[in-house]
TrEMBL record:
GO terms for molecular function: ATP binding; galactokinase activity; metal ion binding. The keyword Lyase does not apply. This is Galactokinase. Residues 263-341 form the GHMP kinase C-terminal domain. Keywords: ATP-binding, Carbohydrate metabolism, Cytoplasm, Galactose metabolism, Kinase, Magnesium, Metal-binding, Nucleotide-binding, Transferase. GO terms for biological process: galactose metabolic process. Residues 84-169 form the GHMP kinase N-terminal domain. The keyword DNA repair does not apply.
Length: 359
């Protein structure tokens, strides 16, 4: 929880309204969203909270977690944390909405740098708050699309639409199947008798500074050589054989990952887990976005009899792992696996979902 000042302490008056949005964990469909493919995320219980009121002069934003304040106008450079908040305001203005000077206060339970979409939760919560305050009439899909634009244009991350759609539309009790090309979506139950376990590896990652944009560029290069707009158009991995080896491996992950998502829609727990295990191997070997601590944590999870399957989640290069486990066992499994992981020399890990009881 944050230790910073309240909205009242920062601005001297109460907010006009409060908005919230969750982080997300992706069960299957990693690095497919910017390739026009299929994804299967679910929301996590942790929320980002934004309080807002009309202000004077410039926009002001305060982060209770960072204990930092920023002020910015309608032009000029956006810095640090303000890139996300200010980016949301500027994309709204670019769409023709008039946004008066605002005072915003932000606090988040979503872990940063863990691959659980803390940035998307922030963008969605900010846009929801402004939408409700000003009565802009934006629906959940439009809010997600504007959040994606803010991240691409102002935070410098060439992200797909999955994170913002999951934060805007998903809940923590179901999976959200999303076709990122058409935005067709379905809400589905988890496989019977299961629950989700999310464990942060303790290895922080920075999306913009990682190989994320590089992987996206490699996929675009593969598309150009194959004569397709999106790798989602390729359904047979054999069609990739003519590509240079590096591009072939990158594209093979995307093609096989799309197939895994579609197969998972009707899978039982055991089959769903097998698909998750295969996804991690593909991310590790073909897409090369894992790191040794993540591989070790995933392997320790996969060894447990209560675990159907486990994989890294998010862009990789650190961050969190997700596992599908037998219902009622997630917290105990997570704590036990972390004990061995820490004893092997990897400090800083923690169970994120389910949330441990506060005491």
């Amino acid at each position: 929880m944050s230790h910073g000042k309240t909205f009242l302490e920062v601005y001297g008056h109460e907010p006009e309204l409060t908005s919230k949005a969750p982080g997300r964990v992706n069960l299957l469909g990693e690095h497919t969203d910017y390739n026009g493919g299929y994804v299967l995320p679910t929301a996590i219980p942790q929320l980002t909270t934004v309080q807002v009121a009309r202000g004077q002069g410039r926009h002001e934003v305060y982060s209770a977690d960072l204990e930092e304040a920023y002020a910015f106008g309608d032009d000029g450079e956006l810095d640090g944390f303000a890139r996300y908040v200010g980016g949301c305001i500027r994309v709204l203005e670019s769409e023709g909405f008039e946004v008066p000077p605002l005072r915003l206060w932000v606090a988040s339970e979503v872990p940063m740098g863990a691959g659980l979409s803390s940035s998307a939760a922030l963008e969605v919560a900010v846009l929801r708050a402004i939408n409700d305050l000003l009565g802009l009439g934006l629906d959940g899909v439009r809010i997600a699309q504007l959040g994606q634009r803010a991240e691409i244009e102002h935070a410098g991350v060439q992200c797909g639409i999955m994170d913002q759609m999951a934060s805007s539309l998903a809940d923590a009790e179901h999976m959200l199947f999303l076709d990122t090309l058409t935005l067709e979506r379905r809400v589905l139950p988890l496989p019977a008798g299961t629950e989700v376990l999310v464990v942060d590896s303790g290895v922080a990652r920075s999306l913009a500074g990682s190989g994320y944009n590089e992987r996206r560029a490699q996929c675009e290069e593969a598309c150009a050589l194959l004569g397709v707009k999106f790798l989602r158009e390729v359904t047979d991995a054999a069609a990739l054989e003519a590509l240079p080896d590096l591009l072939k491996r990158r594209a093979r992950h995307v093609v096989t990952e799309n197939a895994r998502v579609l197969e998972a829609l009707s899978a039982d727990a055991a089959e769903f887990g097998r698909l998750m295990n295969a996804s991690h191997a593909s991310l590790r070997d073909d897409y090369e976005v894992s790191v040794p601590p993540l591989d070790e944590l995933v392997a320790r999870l996969q060894e447990r009899p209560e675990v159907y399957g486990a994989r890294l989640t998010g862009a990789g290069f650190g961050g969190a792992c997700v596992a599908l486990v037998r219902a009622g066992t997630a917290l105990e499994v997570g704590r036990s696996v972390l004990e061995g992981y820490e004893a092997a020399g990897h400090p800083g890990g923690r169970v994120v979902v389910p949330e441990p009881l506060r005491g």
